[in-house]
Amino acid sequence: MSTEAHARPLLPTMLATWFWIGRMPFAPGTWGSVAALPLAYILYLLGGGPAVLAGAVVAFLVGWWATARYVTSPSDDPKEVVIDEVAGQLLALSMVTPGIVEYIAGFALFRLFDIAKPWPVGWADKRVKGPLGVMIDDVLAGVYAAAILFAAIYFWKAS
Question: Model-level pTM greater than 0.85?
């Protein structure tokens, strides 16, 4: 680890890496998404889908702030910053009730869109720089996942 990483402020580092989960030795984005699952469940128990959605908004805003204090250059998008995955995953899960099938589907769809980066996710990933750029592509991936989950649930219940 570089000396620069040690000089970063503790609270922004803790939040940006989502309590150091982003420092897992492999697949930090996936681990960040996994870490959002119990949070989504707790938020759902506290207030349903709107609470999960509010959690996504809070994670986005906190992530934007923490990332602004964590990154060292405007083009920096460190792999250990995973609060963006937390925000996107919460957004995706705001459309479902807690259940193993729903959470697996929400997790898989979010990771698919986060990795594949269809438009505008890929556009935002390449064009939007700085802390907002770190956060926005994952939020857009979460919007795609949430829309598909919402449509699937709607059509499932309609049939």
Answer: yes
**Residues, the chain, total?**
159
- The alpha carbon of 26 is separated from its chain's Cα centroid by a whole number of angstroms, namely 17
pLDDT (tens digit per residue) in 28-48: 999 999 999 999 999 999 999
* Rounded Cα distance, 51 and 45, in Å: 9
DSSP, residue by residue, 38-95: HHHHHHHHHHHHHHHHHHHHHHHHHHHHHHHHH-SSTT---TT--HHHHHHHHHHHTT
> Rounded to 5 degrees, what angle do the CA atoms 150, 67, 78 make?
90
Q: Where are the domains of the chain?
A: 3-153
Q: Which residues contact 55 (CB under 8 A, 6 or more apart)?
A: 39, 40, 43, 90, 94
DSSP 3-state of 111: helix
